[in-house]
Each structure stands twice: as structure tokens, then as C-alpha cells.
Amino acid sequence: MACCCAQEVVFDANLIENSALEDGLAGWAPVGSCTALSVHEEEPAKVPTETINDVAEDYRPSGRYILASRRADEADGLRQAIKGALRPRLTYRVSGWISVGGAAEDTECAGGGHAVHVNLRLDDECVVKGGAVWAEPGKWTEIKGAFRLKKSPCAAEVCVQGAPAGVDVKVMDLQVFATDRKARFRKLRRKTDKVRKRDVVLNFGAAASGISGASVRVMQMDSSFPFGACINPGVIQNPSFVDFFTKHFDWAVFENELKWYHTEAQQGQLNYADSDALLDFCDRYGKPVRGHCIFWAVENTVQQWVKNLDNDQLTSAVQSRLQSLLTRYAGRFPHYDVNNEMLHGSYYRSRLGDDIDAFMFRETARLDPGATLFVNDYNVEGGNDPNATPEKYIEQIAALQQKGAAVGGIGLQGHVTNPVGEVICDALDKLSAATDLPVWLTELDVCESDVDLRAEDLEVVLREAYAHPAVEGVVFWGFMQGHMWRQDACLVNSDGTVNDAGERFVDLRREWTSHARGHIDSAGHFKFRGYHGTYVVQLATATGKVHKTFSVEKGDTPLVLDMNL
């Protein structure tokens, strides 16, 4: 039974007292029998100045922090009770700043830092993950965590733990607050209007004198922002799947059929039958296909016969894979994920040296120069994986480019749970500012067993992606129950009915489609504001209806189009 009575939700109110340490250590307690806590003031020049914490417009980090020293175990750290009731079904953000010191400053640690975790401990001893950062000595890293509960606890406390024994953990301005998704959506609608729409003037010119006041209807036929979904040989035999796919998606990606372990499960026995059949299916319906993937950097995805090769044989096998795939399908795949998940795996680099990843890009560009080549990885947009931060992704891309790799796009897989819009936007901002490369969400699935919450979570991700100028497309990693990697992410039930999450997706696509009606003015113009894409205009005159197609592309100034009917 829940111990907390229902209370009105106050969004964006910090639930941690004495967060900025105005009252010293009041309310704070150590975790671990040896841990010592003390309050310190950071040098002004070292206090962070940029933050995604937009709860208060004038918020700046205080500069005061708790030092947890004499830690004897990774579980040691600090804790603070959360005031008030935590409500179920709400998304709470965890924010603040983390650094490390002590042993980390005196000895070289892996990657220059340590993983530090923020967890919630509930009354039943249940531990809920609230965030994780890769903390480095002499540097403050912002926490971008989140959590959601299925029931209200009687009591809850937030704990900061992690980093090896002997490493001091520093915590500045730790905060927990309920997010106001509706307020965020209002901001995103305004941003979307600027990013994805344009003023249009249809000029009927010389014919204006004869058609002034004539009825005009403008209909958007397709969008310049594509949505796609993954397919496999089984699902394209399902009429309900095919119906939803062909109506609501513009692109495709193959689930497994292009991966090396599928096309060459046994050495020298090439099998492209499934990928050929899927390409034929997509050709019939006019759907471009992302090429996923040429290689996969994670060791447990590599075929055993490949692992059995010596290094010279492996080098030859890599070259043969590139030659076989890219000559067979040259020009067929507009995108390629060249070496999947290099933030989480390094199989080929560990075997063949630091240049092999860039070599894969260089050779792909040589063999299929028309394809855009992507890096592709998971958790970068979530803010909770110390191995997959935007900063580490940027470093990886820069290192590839320095070695001649033609990195043309950034893939964010988007396997998300309980997403936070501000965290997604922060990752997109950092990636686009540092690389100036287009971003695609390449494998989106939003996992939540409660389908109503799943619909809300999906809207969070899609609105953030659509409102961001760097994002050029979104591809779902399946959408039908029983035919997905993560089953609690479906948009369409196994019987073909569209659930609430699927309806939300359809509604958003409808919202992001422009139609207009009216009459030609005395100057011979018809004006409207529309989303980027292809349109048809229908003009009703005394002699009948006339149709003409036109395109609305990105631009900051009004688009004036001569109709010349």
C-alpha cells in the first residue's frame, strides 16, 4: 500500500533540501562506515557556466560542493532524503555536478576518469537508477539523469556512489524535480515552426486579372523529413505490417539481413538472398534503405570463424567483406553504418590496430562514393551511459576524420526508456555544434509497458528530434508487437490494431503536414506557411480545376513561386 497521500504536483521544484549547501552539511549523511563529508568552495574560474538545467532562468551552479573522502568501497558516498511525495507515472529529472579527486589526481585512471552513479533507495530497499556520469579530476560533469516510479514510496533518499575505493567524490547542487512535459512541448512547437516551416507566396502573375478571387487549395504530398522502420523477411509477409509500413513510413532498414554474420555465417558461403528480397520489396513501394551495417565492433556479434582467423587472414577477410558487399550493392543504399557501436566495442581495432576503423570508412567511400557514411551508437542521447557521452562521440568522429574517414552523418540509435527532452536536446546541440554533421535517429524504440506512458515518451523523443535543425530523419527499430527487439515498444498490436503510441505517432505526422485553402488576392498571390516538402496546388477557375506541384525547401526568407498555369 502506498504511504503517501495524493498531492498536487509542483513541477520543477527541487525535492532536495540544502542542495546548494547554504546550511553546510545539514540533511546530508555519508554512505559507508569510513566515509567523511566536508563542504568546500570551488575556485570561481572552475565553476561551470553552461547547464541544461532550465528550471530557473537565472540558475547558475553555486560553486559549493560536498567532498566525500576516505571511501573504502565503490558503494560508499553520500545521501540525502527526498522531501515530499514522489508520484508514480511522473518523470523526475536528476541534475547537478560531479567531479572526482584524491587517488584519481595522483594515479592514472582508465580513460582519465571514473563512472559515478546517482541512485534512489526506496523504503522497500529497492534501488532505482537515477543517472550516471563519467567524472574526471579537475573537471565538473553535469548529471543528466531521470527516473520514474510505478508506485509512491513511503520514504526515499538519493545516493551518490561509484568510483573505486580511495577516490574522492565531489557533488555540487544535486537536484531532483518533476518535469513539466507539456511546458516543454509548447517550447518545441514554437521551435518547430522556425526550423521546419517557411512562408510561401504563390504568384499567379499575368493571369491574376482573370482569376482574382479564385479558390485555391494547397495540399502537402510528402515531407522532406523522413520516418522509417526496420523490416525483415517475416514481417513483409504480414498484411497488417505492410499496410502500416507503406502508409506511415518513408524509409526502411534491414534488421539483420545485411550484417556480416547473416550474409557470411560460414566462411566463403555468401548469402545475399534475404537482402535482395528485401530490396525488391522496398523498390516496389519506393522506400530508400539505410545500409546497416557493414561491420559491428562489439565482439559478441562477430562470427566464430572470423575470430578464428589470424591477423593477416582477418585483414584479408575485412577487405573481402567490403569488396563483396559494396560492389554488389553500389548505389543501392544511400546510407551505411560502417562499423556499428564503436563506443561500446573495439574488436577490429584491438586485433588490427588503431587505423582499421578509418580504413573501413576510406574503403567504403572508395567503393561506393555516393553513400553517406555514418557512425552509429546507443545511449548517447540518454545522458546515463558513461561510455557513450556526446563528448566521447565527438572525440571518436574527430579521430576518424583525422585519419581520412569520410564521416558524413551521426547515428543515434534511440533505444530509450523514460526519455528527458532537455537531455536529448543537449546531446543534439553538442554533436551538431562540434561536427556540423547531420544526425539521424537510426533505431528508435521507446520501451514502456504502460502504453499511455509509452505514447508520452514517444512524443518526447519525436518532438525533440523534429524540432532540432541537425536531425534529418528518424528510423524506428520495428513497430509491431511480436516483431520487435524490445516488445514493450510497439506501436501496432499483433492483431493489427494501432495502440495509443501508434496513434500518437500518426497524430504527430498529421500535425507536421500542411494544408491551406483560400482565394487569390487582388495582386495575384496566395500566401501560406507550410512545412518543408512537396505540395500540389489546386486552382478552381470558371473553366475547371488546374493542378501544379511545387516544393518548399529550407530558407529564412519567404519563398516566392511563379505558378505560370
UniProtKB/TrEMBL annotation:
Record domain GH10: where: 215-508
Domain of life: Eukaryota
Entry keyword annotation includes Hydrolase: yes
GO annotation, biological process: polysaccharide catabolic process
Keywords carried by this UniProt record: Carbohydrate metabolism, Hydrolase, Polysaccharide degradation
Pfam name, any one: Glyco_hydro_10
GO MF assignments: endo-1,4-beta-xylanase activity
InterPro entries for the chain: Galactose-bd-like_sf (IPR008979), GH (IPR017853), GH10 (IPR044846), GH10_dom (IPR001000)
Family: Belongs to the glycosyl hydrolase 10 (cellulase F) family.
Protein name, per record: GH10 domain-containing protein
Upper classification of the organism: Eukaryota, Viridiplantae, Streptophyta, Embryophyta, Tracheophyta
